[in-house]
Design a protein that fits this description.
alpha+beta, 477 residues, five-stranded antiparallel sheet
């Protein structure tokens, strides 16, 4: 009768493990034990489940001495070691200097302690070849987490709170107690005579989580007597919807994101048809894959990319994303490219002194072929089939010809206009993506006149006429 609560909690954990697929029979699991009521009870529950022939779990008890609380921390380490010995579970003790790590990195004691602790647990899991690390976070911890993230301005992913299982680096973290409240854990310890130790730092409100637990939640509890339960329901709902949106965004990523030189791009028209929630998710997924890790504070960056994509004007822009990556809009295409992408294609100059000639164009995988032909009048007047082909009166050119990359201030005498036009403006009128403009070759003669921009436009220089008897025929492709 006395252990009714303990039996109930064991069954809750058993059911949770099955529903959330926390482990498989025969798994080796590291249990993180601080010595407090939550983790101490978790170790007892895991021990009982591990003896079940349907589970057959192998357990390792791990405790980290953070080097922060002097004799109290020594007491905790000794308590957990004795507990592991009593339960006949292998024990691993870690010693850390969290204060020094905090000073060296500039991180808060809370964050520093967390990083050091998780690194220790990963090391223990690797040493024993464990499948996962079991953490003692419970339903009240979940409520605190959701409230803390809400106050920081979190989105749906943050409001989903802690997950029952999550991969962190090379180890899976599992939380078997996440549906159990603290009062039930304490009651089970009391009924079953399970001893535990108290961490005095849990009462220090200068730690954010402690302040949420001791000040914020009790204050708000005046307006909702079931606030922790409400926050946990929010986490459950947010988690399911977050998972669904995550799956949908991954499906869309595979469907509409293309790769060019190992960097992603997508069409503006396709993106603009998506729901705003999926637009944001897709951008976040792209940034994570680049990798440019994102959190809730990156909403501004994600929204800048989204707004720049859905707007009609301007149709070209660039945004520095940090980490050596730029986002470019080039008319109907959004590209994510290295910030130094333009420097990867050097300026080039090739002289064409004899025909036939073939000039490879750096960065485009194409070449420019030139031949000089004697033709009759009818043959000479046949116009080029596309912008990838051009014919010139050979006798009107000054040799040798040059194939080069674009230079600042380039102008071309345009056929059909009285004057000249800047090459930059020609590119803009033709909606040539900015990232391609420095790759497209420029063909000039020895007089410095621009004859042709392959694939874009030819000049008015050396136009073929009825008196032409020899042509220079150029083909780009």
């Amino acid at each position: 009768m006395k252990e009714r609560m303990m039996h109930r909690l064991v069954e809750i954990v058993r059911r949770t493990a099955r529903q959330e697929r926390l482990w498989n029979p025969g798994d080796r699991i590291v249990v993180a034990v601080s010595g407090g009521a939550d983790s101490t009870l978790l170790l007892h529950i895991m021990k009982e489940l591990g003896m079940d022939p349907n589970f057959g779990l192998e357990l390792i008890c791990a405790h980290l001495h953070h080097g922060l609380r002097g004799e109290e921390a020594d007491r905790d380490a000794e308590f957990v070691q004795s507990l592991a010995k009593e339960l006949k579970i292998p024990f691993e003790l870690g010693l850390a200097d969290v204060y020094s790590y905090s000073k060296e990195t500039g991180k808060s004691l809370e964050l520093a302690a967390r990083e050091v602790r998780y690194a220790f647990l990963r090391d223990v899991a690797q040493k024993y070849g464990a499948n996962s690390v079991a953490l003692a976070h419970h339903a009240d911890d979940q409520a605190e987490t959701v409230m803390m993230r809400f106050l920081r301005g979190s989105g749906l992913s943050g409001l989903a709170g802690m997950r029952f299982k999550r991969q962190e680096k090379n180890v899976e973290l599992i939380r078997p107690l996440l549906r159990i409240y603290k009062t039930d854990l304490l009651r089970a310890c009391q009924e079953s005579g399970i001893a535990f130790v108290e961490d005095s730092s849990n009462q220090q409100t200068d730690f954010t989580r402690n302040a949420i637990r001791l000040d914020v939640l009790p204050f708000l509890g005046q307006y909702n007597g079931q606030l922790p339960e409400s926050l946990n329901r929010l986490a459950e709902l947010a988690s399911a919807e977050d998972d669904y949106l995550g799956q949908e965004s991954l499906r869309l990523y595979n469907e509409i994101i293309q790769q060019e030189d190992d960097y992603p791009l997508f069409e503006v028209s396709v993106f603009n048809e998506l729901h705003v929630a999926l637009q944001r998710r897709l951008i976040k997924l792209i940034l994570n894959y680049l990798p440019l890790s994102t959190d809730e504070s990156d909403f501004v960056k994600i929204e800048a990319i989204r707004q720049g994509t859905i707007q009609h004007q301007p149709s070209t822009w660039s945004l520095d994303l940090g980490g050596g990556i730029q986002c470019l809009r080039e008319y109907g295409i959004i590209r994510f490219v290295p910030a130094a992408v333009q420097s990867q294609i050097p300026h080039y100059t090739y002289l064409v002194e004899q025909f036939p000639a073939e000039v490879p164009i750096a960065g485009m995988g194409q070449s420019l072929r030139m031949t000089r032909l004697v033709v009759d009048r009818n043959e000479a007047r046949i116009v080029a089939a596309s912008n990838d082909e051009a014919k010139f009166d050979a006798d009107e050119l000054v040799y040798p010809l040059t194939v080069r990359s674009r230079l600042p201030g380039d102008v071309m005498k345009v056929m059909g206009l009285n004057g000249s036009k800047k090459v930059k403006d020609i590119f803009i009128d033709a909606k040539i993506p900015p990232s391609l403009r420095f790759r497209i070759p420029i063909v000039t003669d020895a007089a410095g006149r621009i004859l042709w921009i392959p694939g874009v436009r030819r000049s008015a220089i050396a136009a073929v006429n009825r008196d032409t008897i020899c042509v220079v025929h150029m083909v780009f492709g």
